[in-house]
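Quick one: DHH family protein from Fusarium tricinctum, structure tokens please.
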Amino acid sequence: MMHSKVKTKGWHHIVDTMRPLTSQSVVTPAFRAQRFFHFPCVRRPSFIITQQFAMKRSAATASLKTGTQIPKKSRTSKPSISVPEYHSTPSKKDSNGEIIWPAPKSQIEVARNFIRECVAASQPILIVPDKDADGLTSGAILRKTLILLGLDPELISVYVLKKGRNIHDDESRTAMTSYKPAFIFVLDQGSRESPPLIDEPHRGLVIDHHHAEEKDHPKDAAFVTACNSTPVATSSLLTYLICRDLHSEVETTCDWLCAMGTHGDLGNTLKWEPPFPDMKATFKMYTKKAINDAVSLINAPRRTATYNVPGAWEALIAVSTPKDLLKDKTLLAARAEVNAEVERCTHTAPKFSSDGRIAVFRINSEAQVHPVIATRWAGHLRSATLEVILVANEGYLPGMVNFSCRIPRCARAKDPPVNIIEILREVASRAKDPTLRERLGESFARGHKEASGGIVPKAEFEEFVEVLEVGKKGSGSPQKLQNKTPKQGNTLLNYFAKS
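--- reply ---
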């Protein structure tokens, strides 16, 4: 086909001088657009095609002839960030060359023997699981295992800590003592050096995966921890792998609980590849969607202002599949409440430390939405210097600030890796008053290297923020917020459906 180029009043057109195109419907919209916007025409040719349209069609035709596709240009010039898959984190090995996973073998055997002796003793048992999906499923796996091994369910009690409490405070220790347990299992609560779990005679076992030093466990309690065995397993996965070899039915009755708890902590994009166990049969039977939806529902009550974690526990142990949880009206109402509160609080603008390493968001909510907001912003905020997202909630507990920290996606591939716990401790050590670190308390900089936080008095938190020089521009401060508040239509409001 031949064309002649005509220039009229600064506009270029390509005029077909031989015959019309075979597809009139393709060109008509362009012609109508020219008339609507008063594009100039010449001598009423059969078809008028803008130069831009002609070039696009020419390129498309060329690609069809050659059988190759023309790659689309990226809308952004941002460099892609490659984050290693979680399961691919190198594992430590023992002297025999075997990987140490999910925890040291000696600790795993101690835990298994403890469970066997517990069943054989046939005495009152107390399970103290954490409030989230990982903790609650850990408790459910252990409870099911004890029953499979022959323990009378009437001998098993469960205590869920009250809002803002931990296993070491006086109120919790008194409550645990009231059950008069001979054996106590503490699951996913974190661990620190402390007096015995209760003052009365008992035997205790801590199963955990949070960061801990060798001495960080209650006095006289046995412990098994995954924190030093990379890739770090969740508490539910660790509990499942401890219990799986104790009874043949643990695998078929508790596998979905393990998947729920693990996705609750590590996310639903986790690849179940070695050293993680093969869960293909589990996902085929129950589906990933049902498991992930169940995670969001079980996680919701602990985030509400009413903190109905006992209700979440009762719902979990009453079902035999994750799909059975999806119609629970109490859980659905809790999730709706939390989603609304996340939407209300998430638009808070960040302020940056003077060196640009820490972005600080401050909210006021009676709900535990600060971890959710930290997680969501970690995927949106970008800067060459940014290493920590910190969301501080001044309304969760009277007189206290509860804060959660996450590593932004843009910093997850740094070498050496970002260690939030070390960063928080280093900031506290730079305070003018050298007593600040001690006054921040034992609940400061707890959790994981990648996801930490704390519960600290308001006055001490203000001192901590003062060290950061929040709002003061320094050489490392981000120049701008490259991704503004995330759109809520398909992100935050759907957080619990995807987590």
